[in-house]
């Protein structure tokens, strides 16, 4: 496997470490200052709001020649975005903390989206066709490990105080510039196509690609549901069980540890995308229902691990299918289209999760989450372009 791809994976790992820790901490901070799960969920959702423009970001990345410079600038801005929030939580007024939290989350989300588009193109360029599944497995395993560490960090960092915690995260995100500097990806081909033509070409590709359209619909539903998990787990630990944040980190760390195992195992899984997704979604749905029914945090560890394994397998299978089905010169636009349509759902999912908790209790919210994940499988008979791909 190309050494530059390994540096790319290292850069992604540091980014995921910082962003996942920030995602969890922003919910905890907002819930502490406002007492509102809806406002806390919106803070989580602000990370996903920039994805509404992800398709246009992808169209720009596909045209740009100096992608490495753009990636470096995005990394630097992302780290700097946490400094005003560090100052706001020190000053204390709730309105200032909410405003600074939402602004920081938006900037972190936007710059991360730029980096995701660059990584999508570089992954296609740096991996040979026979390396797609192994590369996707390594990429997702490292990403899951980084997220697991990121979910474990808040339980420790929050004890230092909110301001110091944000300063540490800013340093972690800035450190991602080191492996980024070592990536030796070929420069992008300067395109004579103007921005409008690039966007139109991408739209035409989305219209003609049944695979991508189906992946976007399935991703929309799955990410809407998975996006609720942050506020649901925070409410479970902070409100329902009255436990310190280390226990929330314990459950989320378990999920991500399971995801690492699932990502590693996925390279040996053979079959169609539809069959693999079906098994994973049923398992994850039942595990979510089990967590909602439990009143003991230690009994939640086993179903949390099941959720993680399922997510790890699904991520690798989906990434490998996308690398297999999407041409290189469309990779950033395809990733952007997926982000815009599917991942943008997470902007609203945190607030929806907060509303569900208020309307049907936390147990009902977990039941809803599990049921929707299992019902996704009803789409496969109609989504043959996606479900029939073998990986």
From TrEMBL:
Transmembrane segments: 12-31, 37-57, 166-183, 215-234, 246-266, 273-293, 305-326, 338-357, 363-380
Keyword Cell membrane in record: yes
InterPro entries to which the protein is assigned, alphabetical: MFS (IPR011701), MFS_trans_sf (IPR036259)
Compartmental location: Cell membrane
Pfam name, any one: MFS_1
GO cellular component assignments: plasma membrane
Bilayer topology term: Multi-pass membrane protein
GO molecular function annotations of the record: transmembrane transporter activity
Keyword match Ribosomal protein: no
Record keywords: Cell membrane, Membrane, Transmembrane, Transmembrane helix
Gene3D superfamilies found in the cross-reference section: MFS general substrate transporter like domains
Protein's UniProt name: MFS transporter
Classification lineage: Archaea, Thermoproteota, Thermoprotei, Thermoproteales, Thermoproteaceae
